[in-house]
Amino acid sequence: MIDNPEGFRPGIGETTMELAARTLAALRNLASDRVLVVTHGGPIAAIIGTLQGVPAYDWPSLVPDVGTFIEVSLSNPNLQCDPPAMPQQCPLSAIEIQ
Predict the structure, then answer these.
(1) Helices and strands, number each (H, E), in the chain
(2) Any idea what DSSP says for residue 14?
(3) Which of 8, 12, 33, 63 is most buried (most C-beta within 10 Å)?
(4) 5 preceded by cis ω (within 30°)?
(5) Max Cα separation, the chain?
(6) Quick check: 66 and 54 in contact, CB under 8 A?
(7) Run of H or E including 72
(8) What is the pLDDT of residue 58?
(9) 25-41 pLDDT, tens digit each
(10) pLDDT of residue 8
(11) How far apart are CA 84 and CA 8, in angstroms?
């Protein structure tokens, strides 16, 4: 899966890069108020990996421990990203991980 993030599709699921694009688009489209999002480690690793420029094959090392809290701030809450744009094609400068 991670050896071919743009091509491997488990069953009828999405590729790693499709997961990343969907996750980042959802992140950018959240309300500007503070919200709580509960998700599994894959989307969290995709957000952190994309924002930090980590290659997709290293994203498994970015999956947080169970129960970990990750805070993400939008310095530009009006930033929008049209799905299904790939993460590397979307501006990420307004998103910070804390």
Answers:
(1) 2, 2
(2) -
(3) 63
(4) no
(5) 37
(6) no
(7) strand 72-74
(8) 92
(9) 888 777 666 777 888 88
(10) 84
(11) 17
